Amino acid sequence: MDKSLVTFDLVVDNFNRFNYTFNTEPFHLNIGGIRDTSRVNSFNDIIFIAYNDGVNNIVKTFTATTDPGLSYLNTPLASNGTAILKEGQIIDAFKLGLHQGKYKALVQNVDFTVYRDNNRDNVLDTNVKTETGMFGINLHHANANYESKQIDKWSAGCQVIANPDDFETLLSLADKSVAAGYKTFNYTLFTKEQFFA
Q1: What is the tens place of the pLDDT at every residue in 19-74?
Q2: Domain count of the chain?
Q3: pTM for the complete prediction?
């Protein structure tokens, strides 16, 4: 997907079209993802942040994945299948915390609904049973030193930014949002077909 196609106005239009909550207060971030299922094990999705900095409306876009990697599709961690986050809006989805107790990230704060893909093939299956709960689905980076090209084991269902510098940009904005009084972050996930309809 072409990140340059994701404009602030298009984000707002999509939130309005689906009757999703859109935050307009300065540094009250709107974090979202756009999923492209055309390729597996590739950072071919987009994570975006749309916000107002007190003067301007801004959108930042990052190369990312909203899907689990092939390693976990073929060998699920859970007996009922690999988690694939279901599309939609999750209010208060994330808060600042530690990913796997190791480094600062956005960590799951409320129950998420996931598809459980359990047929161990190379296809992302979303026509399967769902499960809702706390699964440790966080928003974090892949390799800490350079931009990752393949998902592999970087995601078992997490939302993962490929470039660590992009992730630092996200954390910096998250810190500003917390300083402005917003302790949690909504997350809104679209399919490519929904967002660019």
Answers
A1: 999 999 999 999 999 999 999 999 999 999 999 999 999 999 999 999 999 989 88
A2: 1
A3: 0.96
Give the DSSP letter of residue 96. E
Residue 45 in tokens: 């999705």
* Domain hosting residue 21, numbered range: 3-195
pLDDT averaged over every residue in the chain: 96
Q: How far apart are CA 158 and CA 99, in angstroms?
A: 10
Q: For residues 55 and 176, is the Cβ–Cβ distance under 8 A?
A: no
Count Cβ neighbours within 10 Å for each residue of 96-134 and write b for 16 or more, e otherwise.
beebeeeeebbbbbeebebbbbeeeeeebbbeeeebeee
- What are the beta bridge partners of residue 191? 35
CA–CA distance, 164 with 166 (Å, rounded to integer): 5
Instruction: Tell me which residue of 18, 77, 20, 85 sits closest to 47, measured CA to CA.
Output: 85
Query: pLDDT band for position 75 (50/70/90)?
Result: confident
Strands (E), 15-76: 30-35, 45-52, 57-65
Neighbour tally for 54: CB within 10 Å: 9
Tokens of 109: 């704060």
Phi, psi (deg, nearest 5) at residue 77 = -75, -30
Cα gap 40→84, rounded to integer Å:
12
Write the burial class of residue 197 (CB in 10 Å: 0-12 exposed, 13-18 middle, 19+ buried). exposed
